[in-house]
Design a protein that fits this description.
- The chain has 575 residues and is an alpha+beta fold.
- The protein is built from 13 helices and 28 strands.
- Strands 1, 2, 4, 5, 8, 11, 13, 14 and 15 form a nine-stranded mixed beta sheet that branches.
- It is globular, with a radius of gyration of 27 Å.
- It binds zinc ion.
């Protein structure tokens, strides 16, 4: 009956005809006192939040959502308790697939652009919970290694929005089974919250005779103060995110030890010192490459081990949460170069920030094992991009407003994998030296206009790159599809031949693509700019005729790779 009663109250609360607008308010400030008691798996929070009405209508009610295993205890304004009703609200932004939502009656209507400060309190437990993943058919075991967040007796790791709503949010219900809606909603939330400030005072208390555990959070701060009374201990620390940007705030608590290097700290759990040392070595090897391309890491990176050896690593910018028990040094090298790149170059634009960290991984592969290894590494992302483009195409038919350009997208396959290719293509077009100089001139606080980066890159080359940025960055034009249309050899009077190769691009995005002429005794590579839905030709002087001509060495992502090889018929066959 409880549900029914809540529904009735809800109907009464919200003026008939005026639906509750869950996303009317932006949470501009959080000041939270967070207490964690690992033995009880318990979280208790008291604090203040500021909401700003960013809708065009006055608001009398506000929705405040936290994970469904937490309960609201009090909501006040100016020291006066406010009326609120709570109910379970189904949504896959949380690992439990549901939220404890409080619908608060505000003391007065908040006008558009007006703000209100609320004093809040809530508590409960945060156990491991894989409900949302099981609901879409992810096997239990796999789900546990993905949604690994929990407050546990020996180990605690809790990520924020998109994993566990451990601080209040307000987002319309989304469902993982409905395409990309969860990522879109999270992208929308993060964009709105980018200027918000979040401060947390984190306290961990419990009983233990051992060394008190260490606390980690990906905000600024972290001085830890300990208190002990017999077996009882309490550890406090403070962190701030000013502003939050696109960070997912998280905290980790465990019995860590640390390996320190000049560029990063690696905190490891008992028995995993050798893994930490291997990671430290990989990181030190990656420092020169990162420095050469992106400048010296401006802040010390932090690597924190996850207790579950099969847990999916989590990239929290210059903090990385990862298992440390592999002996595979390639895994560590790729992770370390990514993490150090984040510590070296920041951008508020995910396609630049994440795209460069992925691009750095490809550069690392190239440095270790040559260009083919880098192209293989990028190739592992190609299918994901092709599938994401197909999915976008399908939704575009229903929703003409869908805009998944790199500057707007919240699709991970785009702002990571596709962006990585864009950086690689730019590098191939403007040279290493040119791109490094452009990146050295990049200042995140000046990146206000979409074309800022294009102008930085153009300043290093004498090329107009508007068409490239248009096809790949400002708009989502899908991928190119190259084919070799024809190969015409013409004998030269002084011996040898001139071969004219015509390439057609059937796709809607143009690119500069390598054209490879394979001879019996080697190959010649030329680069050719082929715009969307057009053809271009290149003439090559050769001593012996090519056996085949191939367009694209894999450095340009394309939708169809099956039509890229042209077998040149032997001269006799032409007669
Ligand atoms: Zn990253």
């Amino acid at each position: 009956m409880k549900v029914l009663r809540v529904v009735c109250i809800l109907c009464g609360l919200v003026t008939p005809g005026l639906a509750l607008d869950r996303e009317a308010f932006t949470f501009t400030n959080y000041d939270l006192d967070v207490r964690v008691e690992p033995e009880q798996q318990r979280l208790g929070v008291r604090g203040r939040i500021t909401l700003r009405n960013d809708s065009s209508a006055p608001q009398k009610n506000a929705a405040l959502q936290i994970s469904s295993t937490l309960d609201w205890s009090s909501i006040q304004a100016g020291g006066e308790p406010l009326e609120f009703v709570t109910h379970e609200y189904s949504s896959d932004i949380d690992h439990t697939g549901a939220l404890s939502e409080a619908i608060v009656t505000l003391p007065h209507e908040v006008a558009p652009k007006g703000t209100i400060e609320l004093e809040i309190g809530y508590e409960g437990v945060i156990p491991l919970d894989v409900t949302r993943l099981k609901r879409i058919g992810v096997p239990d075991d796999k789900a546990k290694h993905t949604d690994w967040d929990q407050i546990g007796r020996s180990f605690t790791a809790v990520r924020g929005i998109g994993y566990v709503a451990w601080y209040p949010v307000a987002i319309e219900s989304v469902d993982l089974s409905e395409g990309n809606t969860v990522f879109e909603a999270l992208g929308r939330w993060k964009a709105r919250e980018a200027d918000a400030d979040l401060k947390i005072k984190l306290t961990n208390s419990g009983e233990s005779s051992a060394e008190p555990p260490r606390l980690f959070c990906n905000g600024r701060g972290g001085e830890q103060a300990y208190e002990r009374m017999g077996r009882a201990y309490s550890v406090h620390t403070e962190y701030s995110f000013e502003p939050l940007g696109t960070t997912v705030p998280l905290f980790v608590i465990g019995g860590y030890d640390v390996v320190e290097t000049p560029s990063l700290n690696i905190s490891f759990l008992p028995g995993h010192k050798s893994g930490a040392e291997n990671y430290a070595l990989a990181a030190e090897l990656a420092v020169p490459l990162v420095t050469e391309w992106f400048g010296a890491p401006g802040r010390k990176a932090e690597t924190v081990e996850l207790a579950d050896p099969e847990a999916a690593p989590f990239d929290a910018e210059s903090m990385l949460l990862t298992p440390l028990d592999t002996s595979n040094s390639t895994v560590y090298q790729l992770a370390a170069v990514h993490q150090l790149t984040h510590a070296a170059i920041f951008s508020p634009r995910p396609w630049i920030y994440e795209g460069l960290a992925h691009f750095a991984q490809a550069l690392e592969r190239e440095q270790q094992s040559g260009r083919p290894a880098a192209l293989d590494f990028m190739g592992q992302h190609r299918t994901a991009i092709v599938n994401a483009e197909k999915a976008v195409d399908a939704t575009r038919l229903q929703n003409t407003a869908a805009n998944e350009s790199l500057i707007n997208t919240s699709i991970e396959e785009f702002d990571r994998s596709k962006a990585m290719y864009v950086w690689w293509m730019l590098r191939d077009m403007v040279s290493d030296a040119g791109l490094k100089k452009a990146l050295a001139g990049y200042h995140p606080d000046q990146d206000k206009e979409a074309a800022y980066l294009q102008h930085l890159v153009e300043a290093q080359t004498h090329r107009d790159l508007e068409w490239f940025f248009d096809d790949w960055v400002y708009r989502d034009r899908g991928l190119p599809d190259f084919r070799v249309e024809s190969v015409y050899p013409r004998p030269r009077v002084d011996g040898g031949s001139i071969v004219t190769v015509t390439i057609e691009n059937l796709g809607d995005a143009g690119a500069e693509v390598p054209v490879i002429l394979r001879m019996e005794d080697g190959e010649i590579i030329r680069r050719l700019e082929v715009r969307a839905k057009s053809k271009a030709a290149v003439r090559v002087d050769v001593a012996t005729l090519p056996l085949e001509v191939v367009v694209n060495d894999g450095s340009v992502p394309e939708s169809d790779l099956s039509n890229n090889v042209f077998k040149v018929p032997p001269p006799d066959a032409a007669k």
